[in-house]
Structures
1.
Amino acid sequence: MSIALNIQLKPSRMLPRLLAGMLILSNAALILALSMSALPLSLQIFLAATALMCGARAFHTHQKKNKSAQIHISGSGAIILRMTGASGEIGRGLRVRLDTRSTMWSKVLFLYLRAEDGRMYSLLILPDSLDVESFRALFVALQWINRRGGTSRRAEK
């Protein structure tokens, strides 16, 4: 069995929805907590507005950095990462290795990839970032690399 594969990751459609839901819930909890406090109304409004702006800024930053990537895994387990910018240009391929912070679950991959020059790249791969078969193939290939000398410590089948 060969683990060689070439995968084009799309930006997740689920992640912005999850971020928006988290923003709404956290602000609702803050507003509820503030409404029960003895703080002056003007300070309550200021704190709620500040929290809302911080959340909106985080959401906007995510949308701005929303890039896609290509991952090429050779039959020997070498990983090449190519980041694609917002305008569609493809960067040069970087040879990377799994870092110890990488976590692989059957439905979510948190990949920390270390380039040869020491730079770190983080990828959050949700199942909607690629088709089901490609996600499974990527998961299996990363598990194989992990067991054959990759550096990721945490993995779950």
2.
Amino acid sequence: MHPIRTRFFSTGEQKELVKMFEEVMDWPGFVHNGTGLDYWEWKYRRRSCPGFASCAAWSNGHPVSHASWINSQMLVNGRELLAGQISDLYTHPNFRGHGLADRVLGCLNKHSLANDVEMMFAFPSSIGYEIMRKRGYFEIGSQFVQYQLITNPSKFFAQTKLGMLKRMAYEAMLAVRSPSLRGTVEEVDSFPEDVGEMTRAFEARFDLVARHSTEYLNWRYADPAGGMFRILITRQEARTTGFAVLRPYSMDDAHYMDIVDMMFDLNDPMVAQELIAAAISAAQDECADGIQTWLPGGHILAPILGRTGFLIRAPLTGERQLRMLYQTAEGEDELQKTLDRPDLKIHIMLGDTDWV
């Protein structure tokens, strides 16, 4: 075996890195405009919060293991801080079992201390979870829950025992729970400038939340190079009162719709119901079999989803579960105490992760 050396990213190496990512998996794992290199440029070079660190183990001129962190703005107890989101933690199958993932993570941790990053966080795979836990990462106490509403009961229940009876009961429940539309929801290509005022007020109600500025939202969801999303907004008297971001996708001959992000005027709960109703309608227009979303346990959206007909979906064996790990910088004792709290109010959704 050739010698393996670990070092930070140098300009021009992204082509080799993307090649390795694509050999490990169908990177990035979802539909987007352009090539893998286009996606890399969007993710690492065109961020609304600039800055990243990328560390790879190299053998014979090729990367064989990699991890990175990308700058993110987080709010903890109302205080805005610079955080690093761990991403693209991969090791080539031919080089696994040699501790390379642990090595590149250690390389990143040293770099974060020199760049004023106050906390690192990640939403890892099951393997990444074990590696990061051994490196001293903690798990956020709130357990994430997946909610699902079946939008095509005929197809879904045709595959189950007593399917006809279950389908009739489910459709009757949906008929009772289906929210009505007030006509304030519209689909847009980008976010209006005033959305940042609404998101600030929403974020103030949580102890841990990613900062959703207008610039961030347009970078994250309105650029097709980063993924294919549908953006819904609500307006009242020319004021933006909420948004929901949807992601249609297909898997195993089934079609789904994810609600990947959502914020709304907390003084008007009807806004959330309007957005959910519009999301259900969009899923039906896309002929989706179901619409899903992930939320932290105890989230204020959970009862609204329940009243609309969403049910908790237990992950199947082998399915990836949404879990958030974190590690604070040395000397951040108060930050560590806050994140350790079991009653931490969290707003984290799929769009805050690197899953989509």
3.
Amino acid sequence: MNTKFLPHLSGLFWDGISSGLVMMALPWLLLQHGDMGLFVALTTLTCTLSSFVLTPIFATFIDRYSRKAILMLVQAIQVITALILLVFVEEQSVSIWVLAFAQWVFWLTNDLAWCTNSAFTQENYQKHEYATYSSYQEIVFQATSLGAGSLGIVFLELWGITQFAAFAAVASTLSLISFAMTSYHRRQRSQASVSFVSELVESKTVFAKQPRFYAFLALSCLGYPALTYLSKLIPIHFSEQHVSASWFASWSLSYGIGALLCGFIIKTLLTKFATEKAMMICLFSVGLLVLAMALSPSPQMIVGLTLLVGFCSSYNRIARNYKMNLEVDNHYRGRIDGGLKLFSTFAQSISYVMIAVLSYYNAIGLGFMILSVVLILASLLMQRIYVRQGHLQLSSAC
């Protein structure tokens, strides 16, 4: 491994473990206060709406300032938030509002860090390094996701807010130090004379120049709302079928293992196969796999197929980022990622409404079929754009 990757990967590792545990623990701790289901749901809704509203501002922020400094700022904010929690614990005045505020801060800073990391990777590394780094990064992402999940199973029963806050403070500090040690080759971007508002408004122009190109990328982004949709649909389906909760844990583990396996071979896949075709095939494949779940919705079948869903979803996401690293202008990368995130969040919100409607009419099983149709149609639309050469970027990345 190239040693210059290590500090950056270390920062992502500690950030993933810290954020993963905290975002798992805070809703759980809120629920321990009694009948708090509605409050937790409203907190999640507030976080989602805040993320949607602030995404364009965050995106412009990423294109305007040092991306390394933003990654460090995120960790500093999370350290301060964890320390605030510890202070309230010491004063024995922790309320549900303090916990909700902490969840809101971690949610928004995680969103900012995720978009910043994509732009930072494109800016800081060379084209011939993207495939290799993508492999290392995916392994770290999935390892921390699986690690946080495994630790959460144990620590949710043993730890209180004090232990989780202390762990988050230490882990975020280690992440901050790692990012500080990461070498950074910042490229010249916006002139100081260009106002923040002007750059914010310019986002619309960027997408208007090549609507088919960005439509191709946006359709590929449906892989993430599909995952979050399944993460809500499957536990409801299992519950209705009186299936043990261990099957849902197995589903989550199966997805993570599939994505992790993709991380180990993604360098070979990116160098041997066209990214656009991979994106289309992966989205189409996920649609077929979900269709198979709809036709045979047993827990064994769902968990088994999810291994392939995890692999294909991971491949689709990495291929899209790889294509963007090679082709889009790094000056606008933050705003491009921001625009795609708005589309993804909008689709995600619609999917939650769909689950609520299906649950109300006791038709959760139909949810698999609906998702399958959406993904297959999206992949066919991508194919149509591809045939018309709409997937090609007219201006080269810089």
